[in-house]
Amino acid sequence: MEVLKTEALTKVYGSGQCSVTALEDASLSVEQGEFAAIVGTSGSGKSTLLHMLGGLDRPTSGKVFVEGKDIFSLKDEALTIFRRRKIGFVFQSFNLVPALNVYENIVFPIQLDGSDADEGFVREVMETLGIDGLRERLPNQLSGGQQQRVAIARALAAKPAIILADEPTGNLDSKTSQDVLSLLKVTGQKFSRTIVMITHNEAIAQMADRIIRIEDGHIVKGGTAND
Amino acid sequence: MTKVNNRKVIRRLALREMKSDVKMAVVVILSIILTCILFTALTAVGGSLINGIQQETMRQVGGNRMAGLKYVLPEDYEKVVHDSAARDVVYRIIIGKCVNEEMKNIYAEFCCAGDEASAEAIFSLPTEGRLPESIDEVALSTIALDELHLPHEIGTAVPLEIDIDGERIEQTFTLCGIWEGDSVSTAQECWLSRAFADKYAPTPTESFYTQKNMRYAGYWSVDYNYANSWNIEGKTEALLQRLYGGSEHKPYFGINWAYTTGTVDSGAVAGGAVLILVIFAAGYLIIYNIFHINISAKIRSYGMLKTIGTTAKQIRYMIRVRAALYSAIGIPLGLVIGMLISRLIMSAVVATLNIRTANSFNVSPELTLMICLISALFTFATVMISCKKPGRIAGGVSPIEALRYNETVLKKDRKDKKTGKITPLAVARSNMTRTRKKTFIVVLSLTLSIVLVNTLYTVLNGFDTDKYISHSIVGDINIRHTDNTDQYEEQTKGITPDMIEGIRQASGEDVHPVYYDFGSVNASGEAPARLKKLSEKYGSHEQVREALSMAAEGRYMAEIYGIDETAAGYCVPLEGSIDTQKLKSGRYAAVYTYLFGAEGDSDVQIYHVGDTISIECGENDVREYEVMAVCEIPYPLSTKLYNIFSTQVMVYTDEYLSLSAEPGAVCVMINTDDDSGSVREKCRAYCDEGGSPLVYADKQKYLDEFDDFIGMVKLVGGILSGILALIGILNFVNAVVTGILSRKRELAMMNAVGMTGEQLKKMLMWEGTHYAVLTAICSAVIGTFISCFAVRAVTGDMFFYTYHFTLVPILVCTVILLIFSAFIPFAAYKLICRESVVERLREN
Predict the structure, then answer these.
(1) Contact, B648 vs B594, CB < 8 A?
(2) For B199-249, how does the pLDDT look when each residue is reduced to its tens digit (9 = 90+)?
(3) For labelling alongside B35, which of B116, B380, B701, B780 has CA 20 to 30 A away?
(4) What fold characterizes domain A2-221?
(5) Which secondary-structure segment (H or E) carries A13?
């Protein structure tokens, strides 16, 4: 089943003479349970693409469908709510709330939604990621790898349709990167989540089921599962 | 979308964030405390002043009931008692006035009090003894007893002469009650018994308002309160309508002006509103600034919250919760400190006033509660409004922008910056122009408080003792005839040449009598035409029209004054000048025409310099004078009585003496260099001699009165100026400090690329100096404008005011700002230098 689909996504920054086309006519689709890596050099437009997949930024033209829903037909406020229910993010810089402890960080998006976390599920995720012993710790008491695992747990906790990971290993050393990535992949499989990750690191990209290559704002390879 | 319950998690996050950033929280809370202190101090000082002035006014009025009916009958009293709106109804029965020789300096009236509450309502309840019960008992104030030279002892025999509607009764009473008299009140109450009232002033059978002859004795004064002091006049009119319907003979009513807005006039209200606004603005700016900086610093974390699904609404709510948490800590502390400070201020205020007054300025518990409520409310409103915009900014942050936030906002249509020589001054300047909006807000708020300080100072500085005194007394001593007489002639020219000689001998100084007589003006020359024009202009008022039409027939009232050169020296001509030689020649006069309701209109002046005025005094003695000046006789030297239309004619003493058939003076003025007070004592003694109708007035008394008043005004004004100046300076400190702290990273970056600490400090100092100089310029311009137009216009009506232009306060404030602008950057920079450049660069 197709979870994520884009149609002719184009993003132009600025206007007139100094306009920059960051992304042009990008179409791709991702199947349920897939682990896709978007690979490109710095400035190739991969971050722009990811931001639009996650509804963080609006495209100049084109559409993004998540579980068949055109997300940019939603107003900002509704889009935010849609995002916290359907999309989990993992960032390069972890982006944990410093004032909340590990457990609170993980269930934060769920509580923002006014729901109760699925206790059993969260515990299972935390065990899988090996952070169940860190429940009460504050983010600044954790190592980078631990922080990123908490971020992954947070992304999973709300049982989203897709997890978007933006250079999840960018701030980690290579050993930790391997560990975190393995965990990402394993948990994704275990809880059958769809994962889209962007990276500039070929070695890391190789761990994905599919590699989508992007150059100068164009998808050059791997736009669909059949490519 | 389902309705979601997510407030709990937001509140928890808000609380946690506050705990995690204690430094920030302390700064915000401090600023809230400050704002709250300012509000509390202002409302407490303002509240107790209003309260005190109200009490003071009640003392002058001589009663604390809100309204009253005059000259009514017992049945009217019953009506009022049974009316639903009136409460605390009291009454007293009018008997007569005291005409004892010794009491000529005060006005004392005899009444019978309904009960103790009635006596208390007019501050005349005996504190020793009781109200009279038997026909020969009397209760008096200490002031009345002092005038009568009697001891303050119950049982003392008191001989009194009572005038009851023209009939005199002399009787010796026994003193049964005493209370502390108040010199401020206009009348001294003397209580007699109901038995006495029933015998000598029985309840009249006819209403006061329908009777033929003007009798007062036996009628009741009924005073009462309403539930609140709002619109007393309207309520009273409604009450009269209820009780008397459309009757023609509705009783007179009185409104206690202590309760009307008279004490809290529109000027004071406007002033208070401006002060509240300034504090509001200052509080807003400080708190807004801090919130804004806090949010800019944390913009990434807000963006991050948004990426993981926090909505803009939730972020705004979170900021509001934090603001409320800060307020919950800051406001109670601010209230306590503010109340303490205002207590100090008020004790300083009352210390400068006499002890009796001090009690009026106490702050009652109810008032304290109200002050706290109002201040808390205002502070809370300030905080909530201040965090509104920062909340919007935080909520509106695009998750993407936040993730890559780096303080440089791209703007189109911006001219490129020219490359120039880089000096700390140049960098400072470019920083100021880069953040124009902030510069504008800071300079504006500083200007606002400094201009207000300047305005207040200008107002306070202009109170003119000499001018104030000149309205009450001219020269050092004025002796006049008592106005405790029905005879016009006695009142206006009752000081006979013998008395003048007596005064001269008693004082041993030169005396300057101002003689008075009345006569008529024979309108001639251009006068009839001017009179006609005048009656057309002011014909709408019936009595004025009548007086003018009589005048137009050719003759009208002349008030003839005989003055010497010393008295002439106090006259301020509107037109022409008073030449002593011309005056002495007897052929010249200074004239001034008065028309009721047309003060200040130059058309009223029927005679101008160069005209000839013809007056008649006594039988067929017509004399002509050339007008050398248009000039009013100083009020203290005048008869203090006004006709609807008349012309004052001032001639030299000798001329007057040859003119008047029966010369007499209205006032005798004495100037003395004697500091020992013996001249004063002698004059006073001469006036107080038994049988003498003369009343003594001394400049010192008015000086003391004025000093009391001005002392209070200056003190309060000074405190308010101080608060304003403090706000301004704190605002400045806030602007400079936050400017430095919020650019920690930017400064570190400059440091990293080679700007030395010395250069950085210099740059920061230049920025501060720019603020100070810009503020000084704006303040000077706006201050000049306000001073020249607003202050001059407002104070123009005050007779005791002399306008002086000044910008001294602005100068002083500028110097202070300059000192701060040099000092703060050093301190602030030292503070941020505790962390290394790398640490600072890494932040965020």
Answers:
(1) yes
(2) 988 888 888 888 777 788 899 999 998 887 777 888 888 888 888 887 777
(3) B780
(4) Rossmann fold (3.40.50)
(5) strand A2-13
Are A99 and B10 a contacting pair at CB < 8 A?
no
- Range of B567's domain? 477-671
Chain B interface test: which of A15, A97, A159 (most B C-beta within 10 Å): A97
> What is the residue whose two structure tokens read 């509106």?
B396
CB A36 within 8 A of CB A208: yes
Record the pTM: 0.64
Q: Are A135 and A104 in contact (CB under 8 A)?
A: no
Q: A140 contacts in B (CB within 8 Å)?
A: none
Residues B301 and B206 in one domain: no
Rg for chain B (alpha carbons), in Å? 36
ipTM of model: 0.73
Share of chain B above pLDDT 70, in %: 88
Give how many domains chain B has, as a whole number: 4
Chain B residue with CA closest to A49: the answer is B400
Taking CB atoms and an 8 Å cutoff, what residues of chain A touch B316? Answer: none
Instruction: State the CB neighbour count (10 A cutoff) for residue B42.
Output: 24
Adjacent-strand bridge partners of A210: A36
Decide: B513 and B561 in contact? Cβ < 8 Å.
Answer: no
A91 with B305: Cβ contact below 8 A: no
Nearest to B17 among A84, A85, A99 (CB): A99
In angstroms, the CA B717 to CA B723 distance is 10
The answer to whether B842 faces chain A, any CB pair under 8 Å, is no
Distance CA B447, CA B688 (A): 58
Q: How confident is the model at residue B5 (pLDDT cuts 50, 70, 90)?
A: low
Cα three-residue angle B205-B206-B208, rounded to 5 degrees: 130
User: Would you call B229 an interface residue with chain A, using a CB distance cutoff of 8 Å?
Assistant: no
Q: How many CB pairs under 8 A join A and B?
A: 78
Mutate to test the interface with A, among B308, B318, B404 (most CBs of A within 10 A): B308
One domain for residues B174 and B194 = yes
CA separation, residue B665 to residues B52, B650, B651 (Å): 41, 13, 13
| pLDDT (tens digit per residue) in B59-118 | 767 788 888 888 888 988 998 889 888 888 999 999 988 888 778 777 888 999 988 888
Question: Between these two residues, B811 and B748, which has the higher pLDDT value?
Answer: B811
Q: Where are the alpha helices (DSSP H) in B742-791?
A: 744-752, 757-786
Whether B186 and B49 map to the same domain: the answer is no
Predicted pLDDT of residue B816 = 87
Answer yes or no: is B641 within a domain.
yes
Alpha-carbon gap, residue B284 to B486, rounded angstroms: 64
- How close is the nearest chain B Cα to the Cα of A226, in Å? 31
Give the bridge partners for A38, in sequence order: A198, A212
Residue B385 shares a structural domain with residue B276: yes
Residues B244, B109 share a domain: yes
User: What is the pLDDT, as a whole number, of residue B722?
Assistant: 79
Q: Do A56 and B8 touch (CB under 8 A)?
A: no
| Chain B contact set for A105 (CB, 8 A) | none
What are the tens digits of pLDDT across the range B483-499? 666 677 777 888 888 88
Same domain? For B401 and B431 the reply is no
Chain A interface with B: residues with Cβ < 8 Å: 51, 54, 56-57, 76-78, 80-81, 83-85, 89, 91, 95, 97-100, 104, 108-109, 111-115, 154, 158
Using CB atoms within 10 Å of the CB of residue A2, give its burial: 0 to 12 exposed, 13 to 18 middle, 19+ buried.
Answer: middle
Q: Write out chain A residues lying below 8 Å of B5, CB-based.
A: 114
